[in-house]
Design brief:
The termini are far apart. A hairpin with a 2-residue loop joins strand 1 and strand 2. The chain is 23% helix and 33% strand. With 177 residues, the protein is α+β, with helices and mostly antiparallel strands. The chain has one domain: tt1808, chain A (Alpha-Beta Complex).
C-alpha cells in the first residue's frame, strides 16, 4: 500500500446517501459531479436518450434512463449520462449492470470516462459503452466481446445495438442537432 492510499479517504454508499449535490464513488474515492454539465452536453445527452427510446419503442423489456445511481458495490456508485436497462429495477438505485452505458465527455470528466469508468464498465459486463465527444462530434462505441471491450465501427453514422430480443438502430448524426 502506498503512502497516498494509506491516508486517502474511503467512503461507502452509507456516506454517499448523506451528501448533498451530485457525487460518484469509485473504489471508495469520491468524485464531485459539479459544476453541472454545460448546455451542449445536456442537449447531446437528451438527444441520445430520445434516439435510443425511439429505436426501442417496440421493445417491451429495455428502458432508456437519464442519470441514475448505479450501486456497483458498497464503495462504488456511478451515475452514467445515459443507460439502457433490460430488467426491472426493484430498488431506489440500479443494482445490476445495465446493457448500455453512454458518457458524454466534459473537460473535467474525460480522463475518468475514457479510463477508469471504461475499465469499470468492462469489468461489470456492460455490453455496450458509448463515449460521445461533443467538442469534436465524435462517437466511440465499444462492445464487450470475450470480456474485453472491442471498438465497434459506426458506418457511416448508424449502429445497431442488440439486447436480448431487442434491437436499437441508431443514427448518431441526429445526436448533435
Amino acid at each position: 500500500m502506498s503512502i497516498a492510499e494509506k491516508y486517502r479517504p474511503y467512503y461507502t454508499y452509507e456516506d454517499y446517501e448523506q451528501w448533498e449535490g451530485r457525487w460518484e464513488i469509485i473504489g471508495g474515492m469520491p468524485y464531485a459531479m459539479s459544476p453541472l454539465p454545460v448546455p451542449d452536453h445536456q442537449r447531446v445527452s437528451l438527444n441520445l436518450c430520445i434516439l435510443l427510446k425511439e429505436s426501442l419503442k417496440k421493445c417491451k423489456q429495455c428502458q432508456v434512463y437519464p442519470p441514475l445511481d448505479w450501486k456497483v458495490t458498497e464503495d462504488t456508485i456511478v451515475q452514467p449520462d445515459v443507460l439502457i436497462v433490460c430488467k426491472k429495477i426493484e430498488k431506489k438505485y440500479l443494482d445490476f449492470p445495465p446493457a448500455l452505458v453512454a458518457e458524454v465527455l466534459s473537460p473535467s470528466t474525460a480522463v475518468k470516462d475514457r479510463n477508469l469508468k471504461k475499465e469499470l464498465y468492462q469489468m461489470q459486463g456492460v455490453k455496450y459503452y458509448c463515449i460521445l465527444d461533443v467538442q469534436f462530434k465524435k462517437i466511440e462505441i465499444y462492445e464487450l466481446i470475450d470480456n474485453l471491450y472491442q471498438a465497434a465501427s459506426v458506418s457511416p453514422a448508424t449502429f445497431i445495438f442488440t439486447f436480448n430480443n431487442c434491437e436499437a438502430d441508431v443514427n448518431f448524426e441526429n445526436v448533435w442537432e
